Predict the 3D structure of the following.
Amino acid sequence: MTYQNYSLAQLQHIDAAHHLHPFTDHRDLRDAGARMITRAEGPFIYDSEGNEILDGMAGLWCVNVGYGRDELAEAAYRQMKELPYYNSFFRCSTPTPVLLSQRLAEIAPANVNQVFYGSSGSESNDTALRLVRHFWALQGRPEKNRIISRKTAYHGSTIAGASLGGMQGMHDQLYGAVPNIVHVMQPYAYELALPGESDHDFGLRAAKAVEDAILEAGADNVAAFIGEPVMGAGGVRIPPASYWPEIQRICRKHDVLLMLDEVITGYGRTGAWFAAQTFGLEPDTITTAKALTSGYQPLSALLVGDRIAATLVEKGGEFYHGYTYSGHPVACAVALANLDIIEKEGLIERVRTDTGPYFATALQERIAGHPLVGEVRAIGLMGAIEIVRDKATKARFEPAGDAAVVVRDHAIANGMMLRATGDTMIMSPPLIWTRATIDMACERILKALDLAHADLAKRGA
Ligand SMILES: Cc1ncc(COP(=O)(O)O)c(C=O)c1O
């Protein structure tokens, strides 16, 4: 029996009886019932009731080449028929992870040439954490193991991922975080810049928070700094231009490794293969996942810089770490086909020179003036809309996060998938969006904002 034989109510009933969803208030979901997404094509997703929704989030920041790509289905099918699985343990390999690794080394920053695979961004951040601490131990400096991260960072949901991340709610439920990880202020000018402080100065101040943490711990005790080039789940927080060069300078000065989490920004989102290239960085590790396969298969790749890789190879002996699905042949075949599409269709160039700038201007000219909007920001095809009660004072609605959910619900009801995080609407559309798709999105967002504005006014919020 296929799902078509079930009504929406039946599926919701079974869902409630047996399925625990990620990042969900389970009682709330059981009361509301889940929306069933049943198919997708190009930039659109469709629910079980036939509603067409423009996907402003590329699934969950991942479907960069859009939906319905036969090439990816065929690559998976061919690989499954030939060799559905074999592992990369015990001096074995399979061809697709080998060729994918070469391809990733070609597109990564010049100092990054080795790859370690997992199935998710969280897993790859676990690998990254283990690897940087192991690197310093192999250098005879095991005490150099502290990691500096940022508040509201998102680095995944395993115990290491949540510990590296700076989400307070997640920390509260950890009941024992990975030790020796500290969190400093994030480069979020909209809320954290001082009155009259320029973007440039704010960026330097936010970077100085990292240096202060290094000095407080003593550089001899600090292994690495980890950051998303643009904080994603925290609210598409785009740092001022002064921030990343200063972070790189500080890391080099104190011999602290630079770990970038590009699970969202990797594979074209900011108009370059990696945001490391957008910001001119030479990281020691780059965590990637999601758009590596455009979400068609679960796959993550930790890209490892030469300094760490050389030490691991020369001095490491066996590294006791790996996953059953490290270098999964089917996932890697799909990744290769996905990178081909991105390249052949010139999607990154398009984001950098056409749709990215058009998206930024559209948000600025059409959305920013709405009475509910405090600020819009964009980089490449990643954007944020701050929802406020008062534009001038930046005062938010009470309770926190409620107004953004009202906007989101109106957006979805009007055919536009947006995500609300705190009081920020975030967007990360497929890279296949055209100017016409951006125009369509703006119309639907404006309609949602108008409806939400009327609702919130009625509530006297
Ligand atoms: C920056 C970042 N790192 C890590 C992760 C975790 O990836 P996954 O959900 O595949 O474990 C995410 C997921 O959204 C992310 O945005």
